[in-house]
Amino acid sequence: FLIMTELLWTIAAIALLDSINPNAMAVQIYLLSTPKPIARSIAFIFGDFCAAWIAGMLISLGLMRLITSFFDRFGDWLYVLQFLFGVALVVLGWNIGKLMQHSKMKQPRSLKPTSMFLFGLTMALVEAPTALPYLAAIERITRSNPNLLQLSLLLLFYDFIFVLPLIILLVIYCATQNRASQILPTIQEFVNRWFPILFRYLLIGFGIALILDSIAHGFRRSLF
């Protein structure tokens, strides 16, 4: 029970980090600024959620499962992988501002709910292989050796938190429809200004935590 509780807290923290996605939030704010946006916004969230879950299942059952199995056989090398993961997150966090400057939001060609579902699906699938926090969470999940049902539920839990900011934006719109045209641009300005900074420090902090944890485990194993 304690191990599962610790795992849930860990993947929840990583999911909150991963949920800081200015591109997805920009799309959602754009959709909420269009006439009668609720259906298309829900479709976009559902597409993003489904794609993230599908990608997580495929990665977990494929590449990450093989990597985890390989490193389990060689013991200490697992922490070398964790150390390299931490370094990669620090480097990504340090350069996230430059990467976001070159990343432009593509507006969907059609605003039909079916098109928005496919747009959300495509966006999440394209970003999944390069989403280091998601890969870190999958590594932690697969290391616990879950069965298929547990793996599915853990990824559903992660992906719900992953799309939570988009759900919150939709709730804000529903609660303030008459003032949404004033509130949404303010939220967009806040996201554009502060999210890259917040994302940078969270990525660097999480990367340093992985590095220190891998060093601590490696040191303890060398003593014993």
Tell me about this structure:
- It is a single chain.
- With 224 residues, the protein is mostly helical.
- It is built from eleven helices and no strands.
- The protein has helices at 2-18, 22-32, 38-61, 63-73, 77-94, 96-102, 113-127, 132-143, 148-162, 164-175, 180-223.
- The two termini are 27 Å apart.
The tally of strands reads 0
The string of secondary-structure elements, in order, is HHHHHHHHHHH
Give the distance, in angstroms, between the N- and C-terminal Cα atoms: 27 Å
Main β-sheet description = none
Q: In a few lines, what is going on in this structure?
A:
The protein is mostly helical and 224 residues long.
Give a quick set of tags describing it.
globular
Question: Could you outline the blueprint of secondary structure elements for this entry?
Answer:
Layout: H1 2-18, H2 22-32, H3 38-61, H4 63-73, H5 77-94, H6 96-102, H7 113-127, H8 132-143, H9 148-162, H10 164-175, H11 180-223
